[in-house]
Amino acid sequence: MSGLMAGKVVVVTGAGGGIGREIALAMGKAGAKVVVNDIGAALTGEGQTAGPAEKVAEEIKAAGGIAVPNTDSVATRASANAIIETAIQHFGRIDAVVNNAGNLRDRMFHKMSDEEWSQVLDVHLNGTFFVSRAAANHFREQESGAFVNMTSTSGLIGNFGQANYSAAKLGIAALSKSIALDMSRYNVRSNCIAPFAWSRMTSSIPANTPEEKARVAKMQKMEAAKVAPMAVYLASDAASEVNAQIFGVRANEIMLFSQPRPIRSVHMSDGWTPELIAEIATPALKHHFMAMERSPEAIDWDPI
Fold first, then answer.
1. Which residue from 98, 107, 157, 265 lies 20 to 30 Å from 240 (Cα-Cα)?
2. What mean pLDDT comes out for the span 125-144?
3. Domain layout of the chain by residue ranges
4. What is the pTM of this model?
5. What residues form DSSP beta bridges with 146?
6. How far apart are CA 17 and CA 30, in angstroms?
7. What whole-number distance in Å separates Cα of residue 297 and Cα of residue 304?
8. Thinking of the domain 9-256, which architecture would CATH place it in?
């Protein structure tokens, strides 16, 4: 097959359904040899099966592509190493990693358990680290490679009941930036996508009030397949000059996100006291305070 990813080998984690499935299919269509990774579990983590990964791999092959399934977890170093090793054993190399695997354990912060916290951090943040770290040595030796990491506006902006998910997703953005800085000397790139799409994970969003129902109705129009072209592009050589960026994809809309930078400062030649901060610094800075917004309030226009 020909395309932007011809001759490349890519791992897509969490590729058994939703956004990951669409990215894996698009990678295959673009000519990549694809490792379709998915543990095949329910959103709550139970009932692991090879079925979803195998099905997507068969879909890629039926369309004329090349793919193998993998059911190892991203959440430990050993199993993440096994994911990358699947690419090496079957295809002899690894050129790109799409860190898409995810889970949800939504709960208001003051009710969140240790287990709900750690389960989400283990898959999202630790998983992104472990899989990326497993690929890093190969990328370094061949002096090429691309990471595409999934962040979220729940972390970049904020949301209710997702302290675990938000912390992990903002952590992924920082991790991606650090990877880009540390590995650019080896011609390795690392970028993020904040996807807006209806999937199995987003289907858990509450829809009880008229406002919530309206929001969910809009989200249901955002197809997971719309995210895939950006992932393929960022993994390809066409994006060789794109590094350490955060993009949003929402239906037919592509966003470039800002990253934290100082926006205002105040100086006191003799130093600050708590009283002076209250009297002078805070009044000078408060007009530039960030609003306590959630993602749907900050991104409040209709993409359709």
1. 157
2. 98
3. 9-256
4. 0.93
5. 96, 189
6. 19
7. 17
8. 3-Layer(aba) Sandwich (3.40)
